[in-house]
Write a structure and sequence with these properties.
The protein is about 60% helix and about 5% strand. A 5-stranded parallel beta sheet has the order 2-3-4-1-5, with helices on both faces. It is flat. The protein starts with 14 loop residues before the first helix and ends in a 36-residue tail after the last helix.
């Protein structure tokens, strides 16, 4: 399957770096050049060097490419022999004659092709121990002869693995450049002892040009992916590959990692069973020695981070050999030091998952068992939990408690894995409601709300059948704890219903929770505010009240919950048309949310959505940033239930920013995600937006607004038709007259009109099919073949 247009010189992957290399070819015609091309594993160094070789051959240059022995062994000057031996074997006899017998004797000790060119008996007996300096001088003469007037490109790949004699040869070329058009390119890893030797190559005239090869930007990486990938699979590949072309190819080949399309979190790549598809091809590890391959498999089984002792115990290897193997993995750039002294981790978590996936099932199981028995395994309770996930039979009470604790700790950062842990904990016949309810929460988070509702329906009678509590203080504390558990469950049951568009049922679930319990669980007030914001225009006033209560209930010491409540307040103000109040609340919530780390922000990822809604009417660029950050955070944590709403917000923001292609891409993703959630009404909304984008304002300027108006602008424009004054519009919409005037100015500018009469004329022509402003959004408001009505919170066409 094709992976882009990398074969075309000057185009495709790393086009800028290829242009720099071809520029060096041009310079080498005047004087010999020297380039170092460095980068991490699988970033595309070898492919780029081959593209340069094709470009040089196309220009008529002689090309010699070689690489160091892949296992780190081999005869001296192995890379140079690999590059030049065939050239010398095919060289014109006159070339060998010009080199002279003295040089030939020196070179014959290194190059097999010259063994027959030296008189018998003139070579030393025994293993060759060539004089490095003499070989370097003779090789310089060889390069000059092979280059002639047309030029020679010499590429030495994996130069960090070559012996010290190749570095000495490179130093010699820098001090004594060939008197011919020769460009020498050393391709090597960006870290490790060998890379350090090559990085020390310097010249006072700046003759060494260093071109670092970095991971691709998102747009360039996306261009490499094959057609036909499912939208979610595509996003996961782009996230996990982190712009490394080799990882992109490995992750995109094969089936999606989960048949149900549930996203895995980034943390799941770093430890435990690989969440990647079994059909994903293995990474190219042929450059590693057998010892390092064994250590890499052991490290992948142990999971990030790990110690050398763990690798030695898991492989199993003597500690000295394990140290040597781990050092090789570090020098190859596959491993990097962990912040904890003495610990290491894979540079890319996806590489760890692919290495682990490549091992056979029996080998993986045996390696994990040895890793759990390692001396430092006692520090990692997660490893024991991950092993329990793959065992059969009901867990013991202690194991169930461990599984439930792990699931509760990771439910926001690894919901798919937390769901499996909670399910295992609930397998005990006498399991309490806790693990069952925790599993339902994880199902909602990872994007399986329909399945969660089925489980909730089965569990809810257990709450109603609970015996009344006693009056002792201890029992009161237990009762309060139980009520808190069920209140949290009600929040997530309501969230599942909200995701599926069943908003009236969700309101009933939350109303059944007492006011005191809602105050004790700030998330309950926040969920009520979010639900009311999505329930249409009649609920906007109630949404503002719920958002204010959420701010009062959230303790300021809990920065995540407090900033979430503030973001909801900002969105509620925006839905009421109070732009200044919305910006004030958003201005307070934004810095608080930005100050949270990824794991701290995991429970309130949806807050970024409400910030985007709060500023969507007046600042599409900023709204896009909020939606994009929330989308990336949800994808990082595997919170699949939020991907559709964030993608829809991105689509609207891109549309208002004048980027219809990006808007269509995000709307298409949103539709696919809502289909996966079985939120069919929201999926239809996304498709309506996609249809609206596809028509394009330029296709029928007589029958469209020309430029998409914001929700508030459309509402005001449609109220002009009945002849309402600014004061009447302000009273109808519960906003100030000044706000109405500001919106009217924007409407006139966007529609290219100068009067209210012209606005009425434009509105009198059937346009996008928007409903009257008082019509409530929701499943009942859906009409065939029309664009969906604007939803609350500043949503453009296609809001959820």
């Amino acid at each position: 399957m094709p992976h882009g247009r990398a074969g075309a010189p000057g185009q495709g992957v790393h086009a800028h770096e290829l242009a720099l290399l071809t520029e060096e070819l041009d310079h080498a015609h005047g004087s010999a050049g020297f380039v170092r091309l460095s980068g991490e594993p699988w970033v595309g160094k070898t492919r780029l060097a081959l593209r340069l070789a094709r470009a040089a051959a196309h220009r008529g240059w002689a090309v010699a490419c070689g690489r160091a022995a892949r296992d780190g062994t081999g005869r001296p000057f192995h890379a140079l022999v690999d590059a030049l031996d065939d050239q010398l074997a095919a060289a014109d006899p006159a070339v060998l004659e010009r080199l002279g017998p003295a040089r030939l004797r020196v070179l014959a000790q290194v190059f097999p092709a010259l063994g027959g060119s030296v008189p018998h008996g003139s070579l030393p007996h025994g293993p060759p121990e060539a004089d490095v300096h003499a070989v370097a001088r003779a090789l310089r003469a060889v390069l000059e002869e092979l280059a002639g007037r047309r030029g020679l490109l010499l590429v030495l790949d994996d130069a960090h693995r070559a012996g010290w004699e190749v570095a000495e040869f490179a130093e010699h070329l820098l001090r004594h450049p060939p008197d011919a058009p020769v460009l020498t390119v050393l391709v090597h890893r960006g870290s490790g002892p060998g890379a350090g030797r090559l990085a020390s190559l310097a010249h006072p005239d700046g003759a060494v040009r260093h071109i670092p090869l970095r991971p691709l930007a998102r747009e360039a990486a996306a261009a490499l992916l094959p057609e036909g990938l499912a939208p979610l699979h595509r996003e996961l590949v782009l996230r996990d590959a982190e712009g490394v072309p080799g990882l992109l190819r490995a992750l995109s080949d094969g089936e999606p990692p989960d048949a149900a399309g549930v996203p895995h979190s980034s943390l799941e790549l770093a430890c435990g069973p690989s969440p990647l598809a079994p059909s994903a091809p293995a990474l190219d590890l042929g450059a590693l020695s057998p010892l390092a391959r064994l250590a890499a498999d052991a490290a992948a089984a142990a999971g990030d981070p790990f110690t050398v002792e763990t690798v030695a115990h898991t492989a199993p290897l003597p500690l000295g050999l394990a140290l040597r193997a781990v050092d090789e993995l570090h020098s190859e750039g596959i491993l990097v030091p962990d912040p904890r002294a003495g610990w290491s981790r894979f540079r890319r978590p996806a590489a760890r998952a692919l290495v682990h996936q490549a091992a056979g099932a029996a080998q993986r199981r045996a390696a994990r068992e040895r890793a759990l028995a390692a001396p430092d395994a006692a520090e990692d309770t997660g490893g024991a939990v991950l092993a329990l996930l793959e065992t059969a039979g009901p867990p013991t009470a202690a194991q169930a408690a461990l599984l439930e604790s792990y699931a509760r700790t990771t439910v926001f950062t690894q919901p798919a894995r937390a769901e499996r842990a909670a399910r295992r904990a609930a397998e005990r016949p006498s399991a309490p409601p806790g693990p069952h309810l925790l599993r339902c929460q994880a199902l909602v988070l990872c994007g399986r709300p329909a399945q969660a509702l089925t489980e909730y329906a089965r569990l809810w009678p257990r709450q109603e059948a609970a015996p009344p509590p006693a009056t002792t203080e201890r029992t009161d504390r237990t009762d309060r704890t139980d009520r808190t558990v069920w209140t949290e469950a009600a929040v997530w049951r309501a969230r599942a219903l909200r995701l599926l568009g069943a908003r009236p049922q969700a309101r009933r679930v939350l109303r059944a929770v007492s006011a005191g319990d809602r105050a004790a669980v700030p998330a309950a007030q926040a969920e009520l505010a979010a639900l009311l914001l999505e329930s249409g225009r009649p609920a906007r006033g109630a949404a503002l009240g719920a958002a204010r209560r959420a701010v009062r209930c959230a303790p300021q010491s809990d920065v995540a919950a407090y900033s979430h409540a503030l973001a909801l307040l900002a969105a509620a103000h925006a839905a009421q048309g109070a732009r200044e109040a919305a910006l004030e609340a958003a201005g307070e919530a934004g810095p608080l949310l930005s100050g949270l780390g990824p794991e701290e922000a995991a429970p309130v990822v949806e807050a970024w959505r409400w910030l985007g809604e709060a500023v969507a009417d007046g600042d599409a660029r900023r709204a896009r940033q909020f939606f994009r950050h929330g989308f990336d955070l949800a994808l990082h944590h595997g919170q699949g239930h939020l991907l559709g709403p964030f993608a829809l917000g991105l689509a609207r923001a891109c549309l208002h920013s004048g980027e219809p292609a990006a808007a269509a891409r995000h709307a298409r993703f949103a539709a696919a995600e809502f289909d996966r959630l079985t939120a069919y009404d929201s999926a239809a909304t996304a498709r309506d937006l996609l249809e609206f984008i596809g028509r394009g304002p330029e296709r029928n300027p007589e029958n469209d607004f020309g430029i998409p108006l914001s929700t508030r602008e459309r509402e005001i424009a449609m109220l002009i038709g009945p002849g309402l004054t600014n004061k009447q519009i302000a009273a109808r919409m519960n906003i100030s007259i000044k706000t109405v005037e500001t919106h009217l100015g924007r409407i006139f500018k966007k529609l290219g009109v100068r009067s209210r009469a012209e606005v009425v004329f434009r509105l009198s022509i059937p346009a996008a099919g928007f409903p009257p402003p008082d019509e409530e959004c929701g499943p009942a408001a859906r009409r065939p073949a029309t664009v969906r009505s604007p939803a609350p919170g500043g949503h453009p066409p296609g809001s959820g």
